[in-house]
Amino acid sequence: MSTRDPFDLPQKPKARAAAPRAAARKRNTAVGADAARIAVVLRGFAEGNYDGRVDPDAIDDPGLRAIAEAVNGAASAVVEDLRQAHQRVQIVTAGIDEAIEAMIRLVIQGDLSGSLRAGSTDTALTPLIAGIGQVMETLKKFVTETREAALQLSTSSAEVLAAATQNESSTSAQASAIHETTATMEELKGASHQIAENAQMVAAIAEQTLSGAKQGEGAIKAFMGSMEKVRHNAVEVDDAIAKLSKRVERIGTVVEVIDEIADRSDLLALNAALEGAKAGEAGRGFSIVAAEMRRLAENVLESTKEIKNLITEIREATHAAKEASDGNKREASEGEKLGGNAMASVSGILSGIQETSDAARVIHLATQQQRTATEQVVQSMSEIEEVTRQAQAGSKQATGAASELTKLAERLAELVKRFKIE
Amino acid sequence: MTGPASELILFQVGPRTFAAVVHDAIRIGSVRDVPPEELVLETALGTPSACARGIVVASHDEAVELTLVVDQVLGTRSVPEEQVQPLPAFAAACLTSGAVTGFVLLDGDPLLLVDLPTLVRERATAVPA
Question: Which residues of A touch B53 (CB under 8 A)?
Fold first, then answer.
């Protein structure tokens, strides 16, 4: 649909008349001026200026006059409406300000126990007041929940602080214990090392002792062989002494015979000398021979006496040798018994040393494993100590944070307490 | 020795040496060969200790032989008679035994001269067999 300018009047054909044409031109010029005045007023309306008016009496054209009058009426109506609207806006604005001010005042005072009372009864404010009431209720609920939450938060933060403090204390104690345990494990590591070295030394000594004991076993065997030889030799010596003793006894018997013969010879010589002496000078030679015979007999007796002395000495020596030989046999037998006992003891010692050597070797192996395990434990304890140190630092931070949280919770509770909701 | 001499038998009883004329002794024997009852141990000369020899002496009746036990018979010696002295009367009076008849100097040492038959007779008288 095309728009048509209401002031764009249709043009009349030129052929109708020139005079009228001029009159018409003149009339048109006046209408145009009136319309222009009306247009100026309307443009003012369009620009929000409703003060302009069109004087209807100055307009010749009745139509434009009516339009002017209508424009003036519309303008007056609009101005009136605007005045009323402005007045209403002022009232509503004052109510809103009052409500907001009341709400701000309540919020500032923290008193959420009452309800908002607006001074304006404008119906337009009803939704606003209702909304503010809802906001107040919501705020009251929020404050109530916040208070409960603050209380719970305070309680929880206190518990968290206590737990964090306890945790920090426990962590410190744990760190201290771990540090001491680490130090102890370090000492244990050193001790394990020392034990391993000692066990190795014990194993070496046991090996040496085993070797020495085996040599001792060989020496005891040689000793027992020597004892057997000594006993055998003592038996041979005993037999030789017995034979010697028999020979000596035989010699003694022979000497006794010789002595008897010598004694008889001496006696015979004495009697010969006696008879020679009785014969006087005639028996002188006989006496000399008898004396010579007697000297021989005495020499024999002297010799047999020496032989007897020698035999006596030989008997004593033989007896002493016999006793010594018997002693040697007894000592040899005792030595063999002692050697047997020593052999049994050395065999036991060898067995014990062998077991000791095996045990020392096992201990050495075990202590090496223990040392390795201890080193691993020390490494693990160092890592645990580091982790514990970090946990201790974290625990301190947690304690600080919990303390700060507690303060904040207390602060929040204090702040929330400012709001009165009942 | 040019002059007359005495043939003596020398013997020991205990530590002392005595002399007797050879004719007083029948023979010299061994003590162990003589029965005990014929042995004369204790006399005025003392008691022998070794009891090695026995001097067989005829007793007073000549039928019985007794054996004087001595420690040792040293032998016989031919001694000049001037070295054989009778026992002084005072000494003989002091002695209880009549068997000691004198003394003889032998190598400068005086030895009692003993009458063996008297000695064994005194023993036989003192101790009845």
Answer: 267, 270
Specify the number of domains making up chain B: 1
pLDDT tens profile B38-57: 899 889 899 999 877 899 88
The H helix count followed by the E strand count for chain B is 2, 10
Asked, for residue B61, whether it belongs to a domain, the answer is yes
Task: Looking at the structure, tell me whether residues A161 and A232 fall in a common domain.
Answer: yes
Contact (CB<8Å) B53/A277: no
ipTM attached to this prediction: 0.89
Looking at the structure, tell me whether residues A104 and A159 fall in a common domain. Answer: no
Are the beta carbons of A278 and B9 separated by less than 8 Å?
A: no
**pLDDT for A3 beyond 50:** no
Instruction: Note whether A270 contacts B28, CB cutoff 8 Å.
Output: yes
Render the burial of B86-122: b for 16+ CB within 10 Å, e for the rest.
ebeeeeeeeeeeebbbbbbebeeeebbbbbbbbbbbb
Tens digit of each residue's pLDDT (9 = 90 or more) over A334-361 = 888 888 888 888 888 888 888 887 887 8
Domain count for chain A, please give it: 2
pLDDT digits (tens, 9 = 90+) for A280-297: 888 888 888 888 888 888
Instruction: Report the pLDDT averaged over residues A88-112.
Output: 80
Distance (Å, whole) CA A294 – CA A299: 8
pLDDT at A314: 86
Which residue of chain B has the CA closest to A292?
B75
Size of interface A-B (CB pairs under 8 A): 35
A282 and A387 part of one domain: yes
